[in-house]
Specification:
The complex is a heterodimer. By secondary structure, chain A is mostly helical. Chain A folds into two domains: about 100 residues, Rna Polymerase Sigma Factor, Chain: A; about 70 residues, Winged helix-like DNA-binding domain superfamily/Winged helix DNA-binding domain (Arc Repressor Mutant, subunit A, Orthogonal Bundle), CATH 1.10.10. Chain A is about 80% helix and about 0% strand. Chain A contains eight helices and no strands. The N and C termini of chain A lie far apart (about 50 Å). By secondary structure, chain B is α+β, with helices and mostly antiparallel strands. Chain B is built from eleven helices and nine strands. In chain B, α2 crosses α3 and α7 crosses α10. The longest helix of chain B is centred in the first third of the chain and has 30 residues. The chains are: A mainly alpha, B alpha+beta. At the A-B interface, α2, α3, α4, α5 and α6 of A face α3, α4 and α6 of B. Chain A: It holds the Pfam family Sigma70_r2. Chain A: This is RNA polymerase sigma factor. Chain A: Belongs to the sigma-70 factor family. ECF subfamily.
Chain lengths: ~180, ~325
């Protein structure tokens, strides 16, 4: 696969191409973190996050490649790792007392939503994720999930979203979170 | 009351797909409609949840892709290794040698040929900060002074050397090959930060480490140093040569196949570098930046001394 093909396939949400890319640059990207005070685990984490940022931008059509893919991902890795080092530094400076008083209510709200997403069927999950994360068009969603046309995709998305909204609202109201 | 049409707009707004005019109009509406505002907040949360869930799914997918361990197969760009030093008080010449013995570091810096070397330079072109040993040159002074003192004090009388290991691309072999060469006698704490290749931010310790290296590179008097070593096995013109250029040592020849070890000797004003490769020693002359052929040392007395340092320290 050459650069152009990889990018085209990734833009269409081809996970195989993502897998290919992941393996291809694994060493190069993780080395960046490992040689800068990071563990291999941190390196992998940063690389994965960077790759997902790239994936999201590519699938949503928000990315015009002006450099090599590796250059682009490398720069994301750099930024992410820099942020992580800053975060660690801040954390060690702040000491435990002032560090992160976790907003439990917010965390609970987030947890409820994730739980509701889990309750959806696989196709529903995919449709909504492709719509909100990959930001695919209805045509792309239809192609990817084998729907007859964009109308089918639209209807499916609408129904799935309604279902998720219902689930979340029911849970929220149970927890008195609906304001 | 929010209308269905509003929800559609809301969806597009959440995905940032509205054009400027529609966006402005929608924001105005949002301001004026409390119900819509509430719904917007909830929908924002749900969209965020879906993104998080998808991210987790993708991460999980990536985690299940088998990849070879970095430590096993990375060679380093520079294969630059730094070692802590011991001074060779016993040596008749009164030279000080420095030796880095952390094997894990060395292997961490190894990269394979399969890594498409051309791509790393490409990165460095566009990104100002990446992988370059040259980068940190600007701030050399402060770190140089701090690091040496720590290593110096414990054993100022022992020699140190700087082994550098390159090896074949084959990742699995690396560990076994590397081990025998670098006897890990030193504490991690001394050498660990020194493997840093580029500087992610001035505030990190790693930065200092980088600076340290470069600093000592240019001032051999310092008690610690590291040379950046690059190997090139495919050069048609030079097949067993070396070159010092911009503070980096280039080795031309089949050095990716066998272990190599760089030994650096420091005396008051002198910095002498030897290469150990396939049971032979080579003197590396830093005097000029020309490419020079590698000629094995034949002087038995010198060989004996070098051998002593390699095995004894």
């Amino acid at each position: 696969m050459d650069e152009k093909e990889i990018f085209e396939r990734i833009s269409k949400g081809d996970e195989k191409a993502l897998e290919f890319l992941y393996k291809k640059y694994y060493r190069m990207m993780t080395k960046l973190v490992i040689t800068n005070s990071g563990t291999e685990e941190e390196a992998r984490d940063i690389y994965q996050d960077a790759l997902i940022v790239f994936w999201q931008k590519a699938t949503s059509g928000n990315l015009v490649m002006t450099s090599k893919i590796s250059t682009y991902i490398y720069s994301i890795c750099q930024n992410l790792w820099r942020k992580e080092l800053d975060r660690k530094k801040r954390l060690s400076n702040e000491e435990k007392d002032s560090a992160v008083s976790l907003d439990t209510e917010t965390a609970e709200r987030d947890r409820i939503i994730l739980k509701c997403i889990e309750q959806l069927g696989e196709t529903c999950k995919k449709v909504l994720m492709y719509y909100y994360f990959e930001e695919m068009s209805m045509q792309e969603i239809a192609d990817k999930l084998g729907f007859a046309n964009t109308d089918t995709a639209k209807t499916k998305k609408y129904k799935c979203k309604m279902k998720l909204d219902e689930l979340v609202k029911a849970q929220y109201s149970e927890h008195d979170f609906l304001d | 009351m929010a209308l269905e049409k509003d929800f559609e707009l809301l969806d597009e707004y959440l995905r940032n797909k509205l054009d400027a005019t529609d966006k402005a109009a929608f924001e105005q509406k949002l301001q004026a409609d409390a119900d819509l505002q509430r719904e917007y907040k909830l929908q924002q949360k749900i969209a965020e949840g879906l993104r998080k869930a998808r991210t987790a799914e993708l991460k999980n997918m990536l985690n299940n892709i088998p990849v070879s361990s970095v430590h096993g197969s990375e060679i380093s760009i520079g294969v630059k290794t730094l070692i802590s030093l011991t001074v060779a008080g016993l040596v008749a010449t009164g030279i000080y040698l420095y030796l880095d013995k952390d094997e894990t570091e060395t292997s961490a810096q190894q990269i394979t040929k399969t890594e498409t070397p051309a791509e790393v330079p490409a990165e460095t072109e566009t990104e100002p900060a990446p992988t370059n040993e040259a980068e940190p040159d600007a701030n050399v002074s402060s770190p140089a002074s701090s690091a040496p003192s720590s290593t110096e004090t414990p054993q100022p009388e022992k020699p140190k050397q700087q082994p550098v290991v390159t090896e074949q691309p084959a990742a699995k072999e690396s560990a076994s090959v590397t081990k025998p060469v670098i006897a890990p006698k030193q504490k991690d704490s001394v050498s660990k930060p020194e493997i840093h290749v580029f500087e992610p931010g001035e505030e990190t310790e790693s930065t200092r480490a980088v600076d340290d290296k470069t600093a000592t590179e240019s001032t051999p008097k310092a008690n610690k140093t590291t040379l950046t070593v690059k190997t090139d096995a495919n050069n048609k013109k030079y097949n067993f040569h070396y070159q010092f250029k911009n503070g980096e040592l280039y080795l031309f020849g089949p050095f990716d196949k066998k272990l190599i070890e760089i030994m650096e000797f420091f005396s008051d004003n002198k910095h002498t570098v030897f290469l150990f490769h396939e049971n032979k020693y080579y003197l590396l002359n830093e005097a000029s930046e020309k490419v020079k052929p590698l000629t094995a040392i034949t002087d038995q007395t010198l060989i004996k001394k070098l051998k002593e340092h390699r095995s004894g320290n």
